[in-house]
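$ run holo --ligand "zinc ion" --emit tokens
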Amino acid sequence: MSRASDIDKLCIHSITTKPWSLRNSVQKFQEAGVKGISVWQDAAEAIGIAEAGQLLASSELDVVSYVRGGFFAHTSETERLKAIDHNKQLIDEAATLGAPLLVLVCGGDPEQQLSVSRDQIQSGIEALIPHAQAQGVKLGIEPLHPMYADTRSAIVNMAQANTMAEAIRDEIVGVVIDVYHLWWDDQLEAEIKRCGKHENIFAFHTCDWLVPTTDMLNDRGLMGAGCIPTKQIRQWVEDAGFNGYIEVEIFSTAYWALDQDEFLKQIIEAYKTYA
Ligand code: ZN
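-- output --
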């Protein structure tokens, strides 16, 4: 059973076509038949959140998520409180943009143990729940690859994300599954099942891991260009009950240097064949 050609499920993250303005991305995605968009903060801020909200509302695209909140872990309490305030503002921005989900890159502080950072992350998310509920914006914990455990995310696998979401136990808090960060984990299938059982799969991000990878941040590949079993992971996620967008999220200096019209064609082709 192949669902790979179902273009109605294709969402593209605005960071993927970073050289384009948000306005340009919206127009080009629509013309190409893409149905969903996730919005990177810088792209929205470049034209102002209110105007970005109007642009998206008047488009035919579904806004899938706003990226990114988080960074809750700090040795300093002042910084932790600041992070919570900042995330409240991001929740407000997500609401203005019509985004139902704020993706959380949860943070880490190399001056303290990862377990301490994780406790602070949980407290930070819990502190946001009333505000998120009032605005109708969900919060998605995105576990990142362990190579980012120093400063970007003390949550590095699905088990940790599941455990936290289950401990928080609020329908507004769930998990964002990104193949780039999680493909290496031998517990992935089981943890995706677990996540689905608790109805905690809030979003699904896809791309590929290039071999060799030359940059820890900006060298992701198109689906099919690397070693991630992208279709297999999508299947697990959909078998676990997720029926939302398949979101292409690619940070890549190399692709950003291409003609973006050409790149968009490649994205759609890779989606149809490998996602
Ligand atoms: Zn992601």
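-- notes --
The two ends are 13 Å apart (CA to CA).
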